[in-house]
Structures are given as C-alpha cells and as structure tokens.
TrEMBL record:
Stored Pfam families: DUF2971 (PF11185)
InterPro entries: DUF2971
Name of protein: DUF2971 domain-containing protein
Organism whose genome encodes this protein: Fuerstiella marisgermanici
Length: 249
C-alpha cells in the first residue's frame, strides 16, 4: 500500500517537542522506550550459544538492555581487532554484532488526526498537539513504512549461512499486536537511535492543538512556526458526539 498524502504525529506539550517543531526535527526513539512491551519483540528460534558471554549478550538483546548490549559489543569488537583471521570469530559473535548494527531508532505516525484514544495516550490527555506532514518530502517519501497488526509475533530461524544477511529486522519493527490496529500506524526507521532526524520545513503543513492545551502551549507553537506557511488549528470537544471538531480561531 502506498503512503497516504499526509500523516500525523501526536506529541505531548514538552519543551523539547516544541523545539523540534521549530528546528524541523523528528525524534527517533529506541524500541526499548515504547509503551507496549510487545512492540518490536519477536519469537526468535535460535540455538543458544555455548560461551557464557555470548549467551548473556543474547539475553541483553532480547530484553532491549541497550547499556549491557553495548558493553558486550565493545568486547566483541576488541576481540575482532586482536585477530587477523575473521574466521576465528564464532558464528554467534557475528550474528549478534549484525543484530546490534541493525538496532534502529523509530518514529511513529498515524493516518488519523482526531483519534480520541491517541490524543489521550500520546498527547497528554488532549493537552498536547498533532503535527500534519506531507509525505511527498524526504525522509517520508523514502523511509515511511506501514505497520501491520497480527496475532502472532514475527519469527526468524537463521542458519549458519544466513547470519545477519537474511535477518529482516524491519519485520520486528513493523508488526504489532492486533489490539493496536485502531492507530493505523506508519513508521520511519533509521540507523540512528535516540537521536533527531531532520526534514524540510515545508513538509510540515498543519499543527492541530489539543482541546485542553494551555495558552502557553498555543503561544509556544505559534512562535515555533512564525514566518512559515503552517496552519494552526484548534480542536474542541463536540457538544453532542464523542468526537473532536475544529474550532474557528
């Protein structure tokens, strides 16, 4: 399925989020920061390595223990540098290092700008805002991928000859439990993690401001796009329906 013409990113009214609007930045979070413990997880069929260190590294990866993973990775890199024979490295070392190199940062979007649950979960109970982006611009045009919603976790069973090369990390990044399908989510994954990714300012088309946003938040967002052709839209609670409506400002 091709990407929709516009996508939406819900945000809490934090200072850093407003600053990212002003600087035209997207924040790429490591999957360990997500609120769903099943997100980016998978059922991995893999023979446990025999050596203790690689076994601990395996556990660290599965549990998204980033600090522990980096410690083991540094040890493996040092060992690799100490030998001129790459064949001396164990297959488990190679497998885990390639796993680590694919540990990407993710930023999340939705097709829906007025979903009540998403405003509650991701925009601080309607006190935050929602950004509308045109997908005709980079990096959306090249990197945007649709999330699918499944009953079972994705699985992989790499053989010795398939270590890393055929391991599809994006399969883990783009599958969520069916309970989340109301989000109609799209994602950008990058080799960066817990870091910003820039986009052209013209990609931001509108800012929808939550029905319970403070005047301080509204003013900060207005200043963040001052001089740019970005529409500011205030949302309000409907008087007689469970929905959000655009309020004339």
């Amino acid at each position: 399925m091709s990407a929709p013409a516009v996508i939406y990113r819900y945000q809490a009214p934090k200072k850093r989020n407003v600053e990212n609007v002003e600087r035209s930045l997207l924040w790429l979070s490591h999957p360990s920061k997500f609120n769903d413990p099943f997100d980016c997880a998978g059922a991995m069929f893999h023979n446990r390595p025999d050596d203790v260190k690689a076994d601990c590294f395996y556990d660290a990866l599965l549990n998204f223990d980033f600090d522990q993973t980096m410690e083991f990775a540094q040890d493996f890199v040092e060992e690799e540098g100490a030998t001129s024979n790459s064949a001396a490295l164990s297959s488990s070392d190679i497998y885990f290092r390639r796993q680590l190199s694919g540990a990407e940062g993710v930023t999340c979007f939705s097709e829906l700008p007025k979903n009540l649950l998403m405003w509650s979960h991701y925009a601080d109970s309607h006190k935050g805002f929602c950004l509308e982006y045109s997908t005709e611009y980079s990096p959306f045009r090249q990197l945007l991928c649709q999330v699918s919603y499944e009953i079972k976790m994705p699985t992989v069973a790499p053989s010795v000859r398939e270590f890393g090369d055929l391991f599809e990390l994006k399969k883990f990044l783009l599958i969520k439990a069916r309970e989340w399908r109301y989000e109609k989510e799209w994602r950008i994954a990058s080799s960066l993690s817990n870091a910003p990714l820039d986009y052209p300012p013209e990609a931001l088309k509108r800012i929808l401001i939550g029905a319970k946003a403070t005047t301080r938040t509204v003013n900060a967002l207005r200043r963040s796009v001052e001089g740019r052709p970005v529409s500011i839209v205030r949302l309000k609670l409907s008087d007689n329906r469970f929905r959000l409506e655009e309020s004339p400002d």
